[in-house]
Amino acid sequence: MTDIEKAGRLVRQAPSLNQAEKDAINALFPAYIFRRSCTGEIWTTCCHRHLTVKDEDMMVTTPERNFQEVMWTPHQREPKNRWMDPPQPRVKCPFCGEMVIVKELGRSGGRDNLSRYRRAVVLRWYRGALWARAYDCGKRYSRDKGYSLTGEPESKLVGVYRFRPGLVEATTRGWYGNYPFLSVVQQDGPLTKGRWRIHGPFNANAEYGIGYDVIGLSEIEKSPFRYCMAAEAEKKTAKFLEFLTACCFYPRQIEMLMKAGMSEVVRDLVERGVKHTAVIDWDDPKKAFKLDRQDVKFFLTTNRNIQLLELYKRLKGRVPLTECELWMSSGLDIQKTFRAARKWNIPPEKLIRYLAGKVGCARYGGMTSICAARRFWEDYVNAAEAMGYPLHRENILLPKDLGAAHDEATKKHQVRLERERAARRLEWERRQKAEQAEHDRQVRLAEEKYDERRKKLEKKYGFAMDSYAIRAPLGKDEILAEARKLQHCVGGYADRHIQGKTTILFMRRVKNLDEPWLTIEMTGNELIQIHGYKNEGIHTAKGRFAPDPREVYRDFLDTWLEWLEKGSKRDKKGNPRLPRKKKGAVAA
Q: What is the pTM assigned to this prediction?
């Protein structure tokens, strides 16, 4: 038999919805009475009645059958926000007594805003097993859809579960569309590795926080799980079907824990797969707590926190349960305290007693919990360790006057930290000065050799045609003067140009070669940028106030770049050898 056939067989064996279950699903939705006042007709969604109210019906005004209230109650508008608006006024249905909201058909529009979607899990004891069927349920009253005002909700089966002692079977399908049931998942043994093989329905949409309603909880009373207090568990866990799965394998243990008021332990098992095996024996319910009768009796008088038993077990009986309960009530953090005791090689009970003695003492700031005392003590030992205190000695590790020892150690540690910060700051300043001095030295060396670099730049980039020329800067000062005159950022490129990290060139009119006009940045034969006064205003809020030099002097620049690309060839007089005569650019 294939997986699809097994799934289909399980679905066919499951009971179908009876009328009582359909009514329970219908009760999940808001109940309305739709009214057409001009004809005296009413439609009820709670009990599916359609009636034309006659004059003699209006005369009967008993609490059980009051048509006057239905017909005279004003139309209730749908609230804009279903979560924050106050509840709408309701009247009593004259047929079934359900509290309903009155809607006038003539004022309800298309009624699309009345559509609702709910999820329901229906339980039934059937043929020796507890069945759970998961349904996507919807109710619409839209006139465009042709939906009957008194009709049943639409219910789509999306999951089937069968619970029997020692065996759980489940098959589910996608929560939307018409996907088939593809396979059957079985849980035929206790929980292993903290994960159930059976999962709840509607998981595809679980991130939206939409749960499901359980119908038929009374059916559990007919099953072997009748003593597991399922009705209370349904209120406290978001994974009720996983709870029923756990009941199939641990019925006695769950019964004992629920009756003992330890539903949190059951929820850990159901939702997180945590079994607390250090405290609870899931194999033998008679020895569930692994305690003698006197300790069990005392434990039942406490708030029944499972961490109390975990603390008692971790201390291996060296401390009575009564003292453990006192520590837990004083705010003990078990994990962090045991970790600290292991780090400093102290018996946990000794450290806890030491910290408990500091709780409420005004000398230590009035600490109100063992957790606060532990943080205060850890602050001390961390400072003492940094200062090199002999913490292997008990009187140093656990000082009698913790407040004075803490203040002394932290003060010394603070002084050391300030000295270290001052030393790091001085080292950083020294390093910055050294780096700046090295930078200045490199710049001076580059300036000394700049004449050679400038000659090479002139040989490669120097160019003149028609009314324009391109030349290299004479030095750093000329670049800074260019920046001041044209009011742009080329001054920040001066040192990089001198060192050969970038190339700055000047574009001039031939008639006035010393007058700043346009500035060029090059990388090899590629023109990076060319700008004039204030970068033509491209960085202002109003935008450009002058055209782009690349476009205005395109002919000249293209000729120059083409000449560069072909190797910057010159004639015997040193003039650029152009590939062909080009017409000069338009004068500025």
A: 0.67
